[in-house]
Amino acid sequence: MSDSYFPVGPGLGMEENFLSLDDILMSQEKLPGRAESALPRLAVLLGQGAGSAESVPEGSKLEIPLWLAKGLYDSKRRIISVELPKIYKEAWRTVFSADANVVDLHKMGPYYYGFGSQLLNFENPENPEIAQTDSVCFLQTFIARFRRIMDSSQNAYNEDTSALVARLDELERALFQVGQKGLNDFQCWEKGQASQITASSLVQNYGKRKLTEVDG
Amino acid sequence: ERNQADVSEAKSGRTDLIFLIRFRHCCLLRNQRCLLAYLYDRLLRIRALRWEYGSVLPNTIQFHMSAEEVEWFNQYKKSLATYMRSVGGEEGLDLTQDIKPPKSLYIEVRCLRDHGEFEIDDGTTILLKKNSQHFLPRWKCEQLIRQGVLEHVLS
């Protein structure tokens, strides 16, 4: 299965891939925002208020997922205005510049890099500087963390890697897995297993699942 | 349907409902996107099945596929077969064989489960019982190894 199954990968930069499952999961993350105008009848959908005819008053704070924010955000900003989540603000940037390796990016929202790129889609008044400092900040955190990821992925053969991987966000985890796969393939070749025909992992997984179906 | 009612209301003058329509439209688009991605992912996996498993799928897998997916699989099989026939001379080239470069013509295999009788080119039949070992030509066994019936043994 791993050999012939090629899922649609996540998009690069400010665009998302429509069919990518990673992008769909990523755009489910929530953003803090504010309602710019009174929103009738939305109260019951967003979980506040009791009646279906109530409106969410102007200026109230909302937490909405990214896909909804992208859809409702108008360049004339009639409906919603979004704020950056706290992890992308000044306070955290100083933490990153101090030592990027220490931060647990998985806890901060498992899609740190992807989500950050999507935020550039919203035109904020401070956007040009944010975009500038954001991209610089991303690059620097990424560079700082990358060395450790590369080191650990290339040297952890047949070990339990959950401790290493726990603090990485999704993009870094994908890189880690690519590194591991390369290492495993190389070791296979060294052992002479490269020419061995193996049952596809799909078949092996399928056999296991059939057994559990019969039992349960 | 609620969106339709709101749209007609909006057209008749209540402009503050526009965002509500937009909101529902976003939700509909989101649902559509999730569904499409799921169906597309299933197709990608079915395509991988053709390459890993061969041209005949076991009944249990076929049971989980919808009629359209079975149809798609058959079409894909046909296109792949036509392509393979057009490449490589008279008989065509089987691209699903020899995925890893072969080192020898005959290989040693061990049987993992009972598969019954198996006939090879010169007419002899071999009984595949669990744990029996055989020395067989590569191209005959490759399919069975990938399906998990045989295991390639390195000497």
From TrEMBL, chain A:
This is DNA replication complex GINS protein PSF3. PANTHER family: DNA REPLICATION COMPLEX GINS PROTEIN PSF3. It holds the Pfam family PSF3_N. Belongs to the GINS3/PSF3 family. CDD domains: GINS_A_psf3, GINS_B_Psf3. Residues 89-189 form the GINS subunit domain. GO terms for cellular component: GINS complex. The GINS complex plays an essential role in the initiation of DNA replication. Required for correct functioning of the GINS complex, a complex that plays an essential role in the initiation of DNA replication, and progression of DNA replication forks. GINS complex is a core component of CDC45-MCM-GINS (CMG) helicase, the molecular machine that unwinds template DNA during replication, and around which the replisome is built. It comes from Platysteira castanea. Keywords: DNA replication, Nucleus.
Automatic annotation (TrEMBL), chain B:
Belongs to the GINS1/PSF1 family. Required for correct functioning of the GINS complex, a complex that plays an essential role in the initiation of DNA replication, and progression of DNA replication forks. GINS complex seems to bind preferentially to single-stranded DNA. It comes from Platysteira castanea. GO terms for biological process: DNA strand elongation involved in mitotic DNA replication. Residues 103-154 form the DNA replication complex GINS protein PSF1 C-terminal domain. It is found in: Nucleus. The keyword Nucleus applies. This is DNA replication complex GINS protein PSF1. Its main location: nucleus. GO terms for cellular component: GINS complex. InterPro entries: GINS_A (IPR021151), GINS_bundle-like_dom_sf (IPR036224), GINS_Psf1 (IPR005339), PSF1_C (IPR056783). Residues 16-87 form the GINS subunit domain. Component of the GINS complex. Transmembrane segments: none annotated. Keywords: DNA replication, Nucleus.
